[in-house]
Amino acid sequence: MRGFANMLTNEIQENAGRYLMNTYTRLPISLVRGNGCLVYDAEGREYLDCLAGIAVNILGHAHPDLVETITRQARQLIHTSNLFYTEPQTKLAQRLVELSFADKVFFCNSGAEANEAAIKLARRYAHNTFGPERFEILTMVNSFHGRTLASLTATGQPKLQEGFGPLVPGFRYIPFNDLESLKVAITKQTAAVMLEPIQAEGGVIVPHPEYLKGLREFCTEHQILLIFDEVQTGMGRTGTLFAYQQFGIQPDIMTLAKGLGGGIPIGACLATDKVSSAFEPGTHASTFGGNPLACAVALKVLDLLIEGGKLEQSLVAGHYLAKGLGFLKGQFSCIRESRGMGLLQGLELSIDGKPLVLECLERRVLINCTMGRVLRFVPPLIISTTQIDQLLSVLSGVLSKQR
User: Which domains, ranges and CATH numbers included, belong to the chain?
Assistant: First the structure.
């Protein structure tokens, strides 16, 4: 049986190399099923998933309520386009508005699409309000906003932009967590400031609370829109439903994706009435955006987070994980810093982190590395303290070899 499994794994990986575009450096396993915080490869080996599809599977794998919702909705109605009304879409929009600062929602299929919508909305609002000369959007050094051309331009990482020029005009980059640099950078052309409340891909960088408060005040004073990219920080990842709630401020526009669908692709752009009125029929659209299947699942995800107590569970788990990672920092000199919020945590190392990801994989724990030296942990929000202990034990064993 093991020999057959090896053959299956080899065939999957060979066919991937033959038929898929080479856009990912994949780990050398083929996953075939999951349950809760665990996944299994084609050879039957079990892994603790502390990556969760890159912060997507917030309720773990094969959650019975999500499976039931998917099955029921798929039997009823999957797709209609946005030429018609559907109840799941309207209900999801209402729920998101009731739970956030926003008044209106636009649905799409991914974080990059949500950020494209936010960029277009900000420019359209500025054009309508101040005229065509006000179009520029300031984003942050080491930010990440997606892989489409405009969201890639908004991403403040030159290495990701190389070879895709000319990029979309009208973007400039400023240091994150530096309010004075922002104030100097503002011009009469500045329409919006766009940032992640916590830079996740950029190394799990948590800003000072005074920075975001000062940013909000400055943008309000100068009639500049504030856009929060909460694609990764939203949906309970930081311990509250949205990360902006941790800092006591509100953006004008917010984007969501990843955890919103619990594994089903869906994105959303939320905004106030004042700003969202810039969109009219014909100004923006998405064929698949807000389809009944994705919206029904997202509604169930929200139910489980809010009424089902998963949000409180994630808050407890986040404190527990942060405490454990802080303890490891005191034990191993190769750890420069332990940082994060909720179940978005990182360990900055003084050494290359990629070999440690592979060593964790060998010990049946899935994590990843960002910015070369930051181990990132974004497990399902349902992770137990016992499973966190398993993660910490594996990390301790891997790090002990780096002394």
Answer: 65-306 (3.40.640.10), 315-349 (no CATH)
